[in-house]
């Protein structure tokens, strides 16, 4: 405070100076905080007059940094209370420690941390070794908890297996599908395992993590379901196919344009052996969604073929002749009775459609069809029934030539050859047809020498 001079003029001047000083002090703006290199603002107010000398602050901080042996070539400089830290260290934690030391030093306004982290290979391995030692020491302290957790999980696993075994025995007589039975047994064991994991986390004091694990199980299932949608679709299709059993092992089926003998049904696909001796694996999702034709599901099946006779021939006689062929053939069943029906009146022929039944497990459809076509042709020709060709358009650009036969006794046009002795030509099967036995059994016998894909797993009934 300025000293007031004696007299009225002096007292007036003193009062004016004091008033002006007070007004200046009230309107002065505070000094804004300084932001350091580590982006931390100064939390305390900056003194207008420095509390400590800059050189003293720098010397004090530098001596402390050197005494720790954590820093290489530490250098500290201070200007107007702002501390600048330089040098190198091995870890970021040491760098943060130096910043905290400088901020807590009396007289420090702000800190600019320029300490670099030493990233050479030697220091990296050294830090890794330190972390390993620290982890090892923590493990030594936590081994009782680890042992308790291991015992709890072992007990949980044994209890889960017990629940699955009991569920399997209880449901074995009620569920015929082995795959579905195994899935349901696992569903009984999963809650037991989740409860065991929850109890372990509870003992470890991780209650929130335990609730997160239990709550995230459903979300994890949804994520996995979207990621493995095709695999899950095949898996569910396998379960449904094993439950419904639309075909069995050894059945001749046609699905998705593939015909073959069923070898096995596994978790991913259905394996077929085609009549050409080739193994085909069809994904179960495609099998489940496709139309399945099972040729072995019924004991007998019906087949048909067509034949055309001329308009001049007797249709009734042709039907009798063909019906007699069907009646005499050993592979054709009497019940249901075979049919010889007039299908349509074509351009040049009367078309007959012949239907017959046979035992599919015993006879081959293509061999029976060949034998019946051969016998039908011989019977019709032997009975005087003409089998003309289909109508054709023949163009003669230079007209139709006329040939004079002399005395009028020209050679007659050759007709269809008629067997001299129809009885000698009648055979239910010839050497060319290879017998009438179903070739599925022969193909299956021959396939035993090869390797059936995924033969160890079969979810179908034999």
TrEMBL record:
- Please give the function described in this protein's UniProt entry: Mechanosensitive channel that participates in the regulation of osmotic pressure changes within the cell, opening in response to stretch forces in the membrane lipid bilayer, without the need for other proteins. Contributes to normal resistance to hypoosmotic shock. Forms an ion channel of 1.0 nanosiemens conductance with a slight preference for anions.
Residues crossing the lipid bilayer are 142-167, 179-201, 207-228
What PANTHER family does UniProt report for this protein, alphabetically? SMALL-CONDUCTANCE MECHANOSENSITIVE CHANNEL
Q: Which residues form the BON domain?
A: 53-119
The protein's name in its UniProt record: Small-conductance mechanosensitive channel
Pfam families in alphabetical order = BON (PF04972), MS_channel_2nd (PF00924), MS_channel_3rd (PF21082)
Q: Tell me how this protein assembles.
A: Homoheptamer.
Task: Say which domain of life the source belongs to.
Answer: Bacteria
Cross-referenced InterPro entries: BON_dom, LSM_dom_sf, MS_channel_C, MscS_archaea/bacteria_type, MscS_beta-dom_sf, MscS_channel_2nd, MscS_channel_C_sf, MscS_channel_CS
**Residue span of region Disordered:** 405-462
Q: Which UniProt keywords apply?
A: Cell inner membrane, Cell membrane, Ion channel, Ion transport, Membrane, Signal, Transmembrane, Transmembrane helix, Transport
Indicate where this protein is primarily found: membrane
Q: Which family does it belong to?
A: Belongs to the MscS (TC 1.A.23) family.
Q: Where is the composition biased (Basic and acidic residues)?
A: 439-462
Q: Where in the cell is it found?
A: Cell inner membrane; Cell membrane
Point out the signal peptide segment.
1-22
């Amino acid at each position: 405070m300025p000293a007031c001079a004696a007299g009225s003029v002096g007292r007036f001047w003193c009062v004016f100076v004091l008033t002006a000083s007070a007004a200046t002090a009230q309107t002065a703006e505070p000094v804004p905080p300084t932001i350091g290199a580590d982006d931390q603002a100064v939390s305390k107010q900056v003194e207008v007059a420095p509390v400590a000398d800059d050189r003293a602050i720098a010397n004090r901080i530098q001596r402390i940094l050197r005494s720790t042996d954590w820093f290489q070539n530490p250098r500290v400089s201070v200007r107007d209370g702002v501390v600048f830290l330089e040098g190198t260290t091995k870890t970021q934690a040491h760098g943060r420690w130096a910043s905290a030391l400088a901020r807590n030093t009396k007289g420090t306004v702000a800190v600019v941390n320029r300490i670099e982290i030493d990233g050479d290979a030697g220091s990296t391995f050294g830090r890794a070794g330190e972390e390993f030692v620290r982890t090892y020491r923590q493990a030594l302290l936590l081994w009782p908890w680890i042992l308790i957790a291991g015992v709890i999980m072992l007990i949980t696993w044994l209890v889960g297996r017990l629940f699955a075994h009991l569920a399997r025995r209880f449901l074995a007589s009620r569920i015929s599908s082995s795959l579905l039975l195994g899935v349901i047994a696992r569903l009984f064991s999963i809650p037991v395992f989740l409860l065991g994991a929850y109890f372990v986390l509870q003992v470890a004091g991780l209650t929130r993590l335990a609730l997160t694990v239990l709550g995230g199980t459903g979300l994890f299932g949804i994520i996995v379901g979207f990621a493995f949608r095709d695999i899950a679709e095949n898996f569910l299709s396998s379960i449904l196919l094993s439950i419904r059993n639309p075909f069995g092992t050894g059945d001749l089926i046609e699905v998705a344009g593939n015909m073959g003998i069923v070898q096995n049904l596994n978790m991913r696909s259905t394996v077929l052996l085609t009549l050409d001796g080739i193994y085909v694996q069809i994904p179960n999702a495609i099998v489940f969604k496709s139309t399945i034709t099972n040729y072995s599901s019924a004991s007998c099946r019906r087949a048909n073929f067509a034949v055309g006779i001329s308009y001049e021939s007797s249709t009734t006689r042709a039907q009798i002749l063909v019906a007699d062929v069907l009646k005499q053939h050993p592979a054709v069943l009497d019940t249901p009775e075979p049919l010889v029906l007039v299908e349509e009146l074509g351009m040049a022929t009367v078309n007959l459609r012949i239907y017959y039944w046979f035992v599919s497990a015993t006879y081959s459809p293509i061999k029976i069809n060949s034998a019946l076509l051969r016998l039908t042709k011989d019977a019709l020709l032997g009975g005087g029934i003409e089998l003309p060709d289909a109508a054709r358009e023949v163009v003669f650009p230079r007209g139709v030539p006329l040939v004079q036969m002399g005395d009028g006794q020209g050679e007659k046009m050759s007709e269809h050859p008629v067997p001299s002795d129809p009885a000698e030509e009648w055979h239910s099967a010839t050497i060319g047809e290879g017998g009438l036995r179903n070739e599925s059994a022969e193909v299956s016998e021959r396939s035993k020498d090869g390797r059936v894909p995924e033969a160890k797993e079969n979810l179908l009934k034999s």
